[in-house]
Design a protein that fits this description.
It contains seven helices and no strands. By secondary structure, it is mainly alpha-helical.
């Protein structure tokens, strides 16, 4: 895996100044713009295009909290891939039960078209997501292997929040 942090000149850490990294991304994108290579040879144009694609993918990884954590774990040699069969990350059974109960409450609120309840559930999960994200950032600094389950929790929270967004969009449409 190409190091997205190195490509963007960013430190290899979870807590980043995303505005500064975004500025670097924009600067690199301007430098690598195809118009700047219009009169260059085919191999130079292709190299610039490949580099621009790599820079864009690096930015997509670094700006997304979950993908950024996955990249940091991968760069530390810790497998955290999520597959269709099973995740390499285990989360505590108590957490799974809480998420199952929250999903049931969300499904019930959706069925009743209770948008206020949907929003309330979303706010609660968003708060938990933010706390977990802070713990993940700290864990990545101090003890990466012990922080892996936090990534698993964030994935569950993200899916839940995506569903809340879908319900809200459905109600608005």
């Amino acid at each position: 895996m190409e190091d997205p942090f190195e490509l963007l000149g960013a430190p290899r850490k979870y807590d980043l100044d995303l505005a500064a990294v975004e500025k670097t991304h924009r600067d690199l994108s301007r430098e690598l713009h195809p118009d700047k290579f219009a009169s260059a040879g085919a191999s130079e144009r292709k190299a610039a295009l490949d580099k621009a694609a790599s820079v864009n993918e690096a930015w997509r990884i670094v700006r997304d909290p979950i993908r950024r954590a996955e990249a940091l774990f991968a760069l530390a040699g810790i497998a955290v891939a999520e597959t269709n069969d099973t995740s390499t990350i285990s989360v505590p059974p108590k957490f799974l039960m809480e998420m199952m109960e929250a999903r049931e409450a969300l499904a019930e609120a959706r069925a009743k078209k209770d948008l206020e309840k949907v929003r309330s559930l979303g706010e609660g999960i968003r708060a938990r997501y933010e706390v977990t994200q802070a713990k993940l950032a700290e864990g990545l600094q101090t003890a990466p292997r012990s922080a892996v389950s936090r990534l698993g929790e964030m994935r569950f929270y993200k899916r839940f929040l995506d569903e809340v967004d879908a319900i809200e969009d459905e109600a608005a449409g």
